[in-house]
Amino acid sequence: MDSQILSIRGMTCAACAQRIEKTVRKLSGIGQATVNLASEKLFVEYDKNSLPLAAIKEAVTKIGYEVVEKSDSSKVAIPIGGMTCAACAQRVEKAIKRLKGVASVSVNFATEKATVAYDPHQVRLSAIKEAIEKAGYKALEVNKTDAADEDRARKQKAIKVLWTKFIVSAVFSLPLLYIAMVPMLTKYGITLPYPQGLNPMNYALIYALLEILLVIPVIGVGYKFYTIGFKALIQRSPNMDSLIAIGTTAAVLYSLYNTWQIAQGHFKYVDALYFETAGVIITLILLGKSLEAVSKGRTSEAIKKLMGLAPKTALIIQDGVEKEIPIEEVEIGDIIIVKPGAKIPVDGTVVEGHTAIDESMLTGESMPVDKKARDTVYAASLNTTGTIQFKAEKIGGDTALAQIIKLVEDAQGSKAPIAAMADKVSGVFVPIVCVIALIAGVAWFFGSGGDLKFALTIFISVLVIACPCALGLATPTAIMVGTGKGAENGILIKGGEALETAHKINTIVFDKTGTLTEGKPTVTDVLATEGAEADNLLQITASAEKGSEHPLGQAIVAGAQDKGLEILKAERFDSVTGRGIEAQINGQTVLAGNRKLMNDRKISLTALEAASDKLAGEGKTPMYVAIDGRLAGIVAVADVVKASSKSAIESLHKMGIEVAMITGDNRRTADAIAKQVGIDRVLAEVLPQDKSNEVKKLQGEGRKVAMVGDGINDAPALAQADIGIAIGSGTDVAMESADIVLMRSQLTDVPTAINLSKKTIRNIKQNLFWAFGYHVVGIPIAAGVLHLFGGPLLNPIFAAAAMSLSSVSVLTNALRLKRFKAVS
Q1: Percent of the chain with pLDDT over 70
Q2: Fewer Cβ in 10 A, N or C end of the chain?
Q3: CA nearest 414: which of 469, 467, 483?
Q4: Strands (E), 529-569
Q5: CA angle (395, 399, 401) in 5-degree steps
């Protein structure tokens, strides 16, 4: 299955999102399709062999929405010097068009600029400039825009347009409201300044015509409610615009009919004009839409910050000369220079120089990291001290930053199971509201003795108070802010489901080596049996362990090298999974490993049993060494516990979460480590392949289990757990298997991730409670239930105000998550 993110334009409410999802899911070859109303994106998984992407785009376009495919293409405006006539412009255009990878080119002689859309993976900007130079003209400094900048500019423009529409609408609807309401207030003894020439009792037709003149501009700026709303209605998929269009059209048509009656001399119809209702409804909805657009923009601030981290240019060495080029032109293998204060443009390996690099923007780790030759550097991190040269190894979408951005984007586009009910309701919401409005209107028409004005008030109020947007935005906005806040703190949550499941966790299992501990063990004790020397024992053990990739084996090799001992060549080497190693050194068979290995080979441990227990009690790992079938001694290794382990476990205990530790170490060593950090349950002497079974056993007890690990052998357990949490210093395999990735090796990020999940889910529940509660209470009031028992009747204007504020309140509540603080 291939996946694709498509930007969708033209959605106005949750009903639109539901409609797109249903349409796309009907296509043969679709694996998954989810629409995020807040980010205006369609996330789709499909089989490209049976379903081309063009067919998906066509299906969405057919139902009235615009599809914008996420593209890697770039667009540049290249100023050109030396053109003297239109023929010059044509010549430049032809020269650029010949280049492979150029999608489109337009040369404007008047502005002296060439606008070029091109694929940076196929053609470099420098090649385009070179083509211009070869044609005999001068390519000047480039003004470049990328897709993110264009999207940001488009959304800013949309917000500006909405505010302008609201202002224009308010300018006409406020006097309209004043003209309509003041004569009514006079009946209640409230007198306000009012021109006598507009008195509806004396000049009814002038009064009505003025209202028409004032309402026309308001309807004009709100024309999209009608074009979109009625189109959706005709296609039998009504949305929020349909509700507004039906309600305001009914008010205007009814008022126009009454104006005609006034023109015929029936002045009593002056009390049945609803022009101000239509005008004020449109104005309030535009205000709500403007506030909603601003708030939606703020929910995606985290992703914008990430996108803005990478520098726009890179300083490379080309033919021995330093040359500044756009970031898109960097190729794998380029040697890049980064000076103090500059950002790393792409991922790579240092080949020359020494410096300290601030990686806090990626990991949240505040301390700069020392970098020297052969160390890895990451795009967007900041060079603080020295000048370095590094070789570009990962560019474009392959950099760590790009992967983080994609992961966050995917997470923000995913849906949490908690949203299922809201999605189902959103799909049928508008038609149900239309039916309720019609039934309520008809019922009140007959119940009030044929009072059409009264029935119309009810009909319009029900239509206008309903807000599918509040339902549609309740979950995705909270997920967007929550996952974005996680990314800011170096916590990458892979989706809405992971975010929701994490808040239910009641047991967390930590892998010991490299997770609770530093993963860099050192030799602490060398105990030789009688007749053997400690240095000789360490030398033989290190020589045997030379071929091992296990951290304990590598620690023994490092310990021998630190003592200046020669590492002997092994004639044979075999790894015994979960037990140790067997090697041939100078004709001697050397066994080094745990108690299980010695028991398997029937080697007596009696001579060093007490010493081994003492070492294990101190939290050290005793490695038994046997030569030619006899116990030769013990080499003890200790792995230092991370400084953050104890505080992280204390924080988890405060949340009521049980903490377990899983390790291949013997029981006594494991218990000693567990005692240091406050572990509740110890799972010791567990073979790598059995880790997932231990997780399964805990799940069998009815527990919701999270597994925290960093190694390849942790991947099955991470996948088995309800939530897999990989730490950033770990392997790619572990991160791939995990639901949550911690960019730092700080274990305090584990309780932070759980706490963030709890806060986000609580926020979603609040949003859903408000969205459902608002409609459960609001629609019956609008339908006149209170009026049945002698209570007030809801004016359509107040219904529109409530509707506008409902979606804004949901967004504002979601934005409260931006105040979330990490566990320290």
Answers
A1: 94
A2: C
A3: 483
A4: none
A5: 135
